[in-house]
Design goal:
The protein is an alpha+beta fold. It is built from 15 helices and 42 strands.
């Protein structure tokens, strides 16, 4: 049960040393961080989960700052709440077998260095202070995808793009490396080149990922933050590495020493270090590489069949945030700089890697919202053998975050499409997915005072005070819970309505994620397994069973492994939550957001199975809402303040003493009601919230949330698509939209004529109205002349016969 002292007490029982007692009345870090002490030498278990419970246990639960960094390693971690006298014997062990040597600074703080890893997410680590004899202290470290690391934490190869296009643009410019000097506390640095490869038999247990030190570009450089050099061909021994990264470190370290404090560049194509054979004939060299890649691809398993279908329209792609996420390389909100997909304005990628081969889907769209296919254009979207974000178990390629994608999908694109005119070979093996089998998710929302719009389109207002089940789905053990609290009227009294102040989610054995309003600044606060996260470092987290994206201080997106998605945002004084569920949840949900089955009549189903009819009064629907109060033993919430403990942990999850304002109690003739009518324009949720809170701005926020919900529902309406249609042989077509109602026109090349209809339309049943015509040899005017001359020949024959008959008659 949440809120008990069991975790702390168990730890006290097994502690090998007597627990020191805090000074009476002292404000230790637990009291400051949790706002509550529950005993003379213990505190709330939420603080225990932070590794800073109180003086008796904090040394055994590691808390490090910063808590995250690149999977490339080299980050200096400082262990909090621990002082040690000597560096001798300090060892940091990540996972079970990756060890780095720690040290102690001048004030006794213990430091560790994050190692080079091949996976992202929270990595368990332990600390030994006796040279590895025991590792009694444990914690976790967040390893982040290299592309998600802030610019201040890595070096930048400023003009690497020119060299990536080497051979097509004829450039051979110098390269400049820049970095933040403060990122390394040293006067002199060395710059090294490292290469990445995957060795062994693909998709076998022997297949392994490996970073290797190649050579040093410069050493004993001033830590000035910039270095320019002339790229030279590397020795032949290093030519097999085509993907790599630069590393900058203290020049005092031996060359290639692993797991020391350092900063890395992004991984990139190492065109600038390739040999003279490449520089002498880049097109021929690249063609050879492309052919070799194609031969390997033809031997590997076909991953395309297990990829999800693309959304049919741009609107669907942007709204289906549970299964698809913006491709940063082609983002319409960032100016649509679609380098690899000219003609597209926006691309999305599948959030989850495919189950067997860890592959990824990509879907790109034109300005008019049409999906762009490689069958029609080289700018079309291309799926990925290696999902860019990787997938567990990460250590087995092609599951390594970022890097497997580079080897199997990016560098091969350079070989075939950028450096050599062999792009059809690439596109044949990376064809765009159509949308014929795409099923949009179903959407439900809660916002305002609060109002609930179910997956099947029913709606009701339930302004109870407490913690409630928004959604339960046994198919994936998904649980979404929300806390509702009353607001304050302009005159300082308590409002007769409530608003959502916290939302928590867990699916199966995933992490528990809670998004709540921080009382002091009314910004979003995110808790992972009861720990408050800081987003000064990262705004994208790869968590257990989910991804988390923090777009701003007012909006958070959560993407679950099942394809379900949540968006939590601030709307006025409270939270707005949207839940998206794919088709696999059909007939499998219950809670305040209803039963997902296409029938709104049974959306108000009680835990007992009895259905409250949609025509029920607002008071009866209030009883339906109260029935879905969270049970103590299944609560996902964190009770880390005296207020939360007193008002939610130790009280009924539904407060029966709170009497809200019901819709039928609102006087339609009051001045406030008239102002609400003018503002809301017929939106009942907006009008109710204005009267319930006495605040027009609250009604305005509710109206905006309602309009956003309606817009997204409309965006996710199913559409019908026909299969892609090819142009006729020796001809071509006009039109690249294959949605119902779209027409494709056909024509023939010079010297050929159409045999069949000149156009076909996609019908509502997903079939084309007419078959694709054929192009027959011979121009249309040639055929016409043949008909004309053929007719003249027949006429001439008839005239000759007539003359001959006349002559015969004349000789009789």
């Amino acid at each position: 049960m949440k809120g008990t002292l069991l975790p702390c007490l168990l730890l006290l029982l097994v502690s090998p040393e007597p627990a020191p007692q805090p000074v009476e009345g002292a404000q230790d870090s637990c009291a400051q961080r949790c706002g509550i002490k529950t005993g003379p030498c213990s505190c709330h278990p939420t603080c225990f989960s932070l590794g800073t419970c109180c003086l008796d246990v904090r040394d055994f639960c590691l808390d490090v700052l910063p808590y995250s960094g690149s999977v490339m390693g080299g980050k200096d971690l400082v262990v909090q709440h621990l002082r040690w006298g000597t560096s001798n014997g300090v060892i940091c062990r990540f996972k079970e077998n990756v060890q780095t040597r720690g040290w102690v600074d001048s004030i006794g703080q213990v430091h560790c260095v994050s190692p080079l890893l091949y996976e992202s997410g929270f990595i368990p680590f332990t600390l030994s202070l006796n040279n590895g004899s025991t590792f009694e202290r444990s914690g976790s470290w967040l390893a982040v995808h290299p592309s998600k690391v802030s610019a201040s934490e890595k070096c930048v190869l400023v003009n690497e793009t020119r060299w990536q296009y080497y051979g097509t643009t004829g450039s051979g410019d110098n390269l400049t490396v820049t970095w933040s000097p403060s990122a390394l506390s040293t006067r002199h640095v060395a710059i090294e080149l490292w290469g990445y490869e995957e060795l062994g038999t693909p998709y076998s247990r022997e297949w392994r990922a490996e970073w290797s030190y190649l050579y040093t570009l410069a050493t004993n450089l001033s830590n000035s933050g910039t270095f320019t050099f002339v790229p030279k061909p590397a020795p032949q021994i290093f030519q097999r590495w085509e993907v790599g990264a630069l590393r900058i470190l203290d020049s005092a370290y031996p060359a290639g020493q692993r797991d020391v404090q350092a900063i890395w560049s992004n991984e990139h194509a190492l065109a600038w270090h390739l040999g003279e054979d490449f520089r002498a004939d880049p097109v021929g060299w690249a063609r050879t590489q492309c052919l070799a890649w194609g031969a390997l691809e033809d031997q590997l398993p076909n991953f395309l069949g297990e990829l999800p279908a693309c959304p049919c329209t741009l609107a669907q792609a942007r709204a289906d945030t549970g299964r698809f996420f913006t491709d940063y390389g082609c983002d319409m909100e960032q100016g649509s700089v679609c380098t690899y997909h000219p003609g597209a304005v926006h691309c999305v990628r599948s959030v989850q890697a495919s189950p067997r081969y860890a592959s990824g889907q990509q879907c790109c769209y034109t300005e008019d919202g049409t999906q762009l296919l490689t069958a029609d254009s080289t700018s079309g979207s291309t799926p990925d053998r290696g999902h860019d974000w990787g997938a567990p178990p990460f250590l087995t390629p092609p599951r390594v975050p970022g890097l497997s994608h580079w080897l199997y999908d990016v560098i091969s694109f350079y070989h075939c499409c950028l450096w050599a005119p062999e792009c059809p070979r690439y596109l044949d093996r990376r064809p765009s997915s159509g949308c014929r089998h795409y099923q949009p998710p179903r959407l439900a929302s809660a916002f305002g005072d609060p109002h609930f719009l179910t997956f099947d389109g029913a709606n009701f207002t339930f302004n109870g005070r407490g913690e409630y089940v928004l959604l339960e789905a046994n198919v994936t053990q998904l649980s979404v819970q929300a806390r509702a609290q009353p607001g304050t009227l302009p005159n300082g009294t308590q409002a007769l309505g409530t608003g959502l102040t916290s939302v928590a989610v867990r699916e199966g054995t995933s992490d528990i994620l809670e998004v709540r309003l921080a009382n002091e600044n009314r910004k979003l606060e995110v808790l992972l397994n009861q720990r408050v996260l800081s987003f000064d470092e990262q705004r994208w987290l790869d968590l257990k069973g989910m991804f988390l994206s923090v777009a701003s201080d007012e909006r958070v997106s959560i993407m679950l492994s099942s394809g379900a998605g949540l968006e939590v945002s601030i709307q006025g004084p409270s939270l707005s939550v949207t839940v998206l569920l794919p088709e696999g949840f059909q007939n499998g949900t219950q809670g305040l957001l209803g039963t997902l089955n296409g029938n709104p009549q049974d959306d108000f189903t009680l835990r007992s199975g009895r259905v409250v009819p949609p025509t029920a009064s607002s008071r009866e629907l209030f009883g339906f809402g109260a029935d879905w109060a969270v049970h103590n033993e299944s609560s996902l919430f964190t009770y880390d303040s005296r207020f939360l403990v007193n008002n939610f942990l130790f009280r009924p999850k539904h407060d029966p003493s709170f009497q809200p304002l019901f819709p039928d109690q609102i006087p339609a003739t009051s001045q406030l009601a008239r102002e609400a009518s003018a503002l809301c324009g017929g939106d009942p949720f907006c009008s109710f919230d204005v009267v319930a809170t006495g605040n027009l701005s609250v009604g305005s926020a509710t109206k905006a949330a309602h309009q956003l919900h309606l817009h997204r529902v409309q965006s996710l309406q199913p559409v019908v698509s026909c299969d892609w249609v090819a142009p006729p042989a020796n001809g071509h077509k006009e039109g690249t939209s294959y949605l119902a109602g779209s027409t494709v026109h056909f024509s023939c090349n010079h010297g050929y004529s159409l045999d069949g209809p000149g156009a076909s339309t996609c019908q509502g049943d997903g079939t084309w109205s007419l078959p694709t015509p054929r192009c027959q040899p011979g121009n249309s005017y040639t055929v016409l002349l043949s008909v004309i001359f053929g007719g003249l020949a027949v006429a001439l024959v008839i005239v000759l016969l007539f003359v001959l008959l006349r002559r015969r008659k004349g000789h009789r």
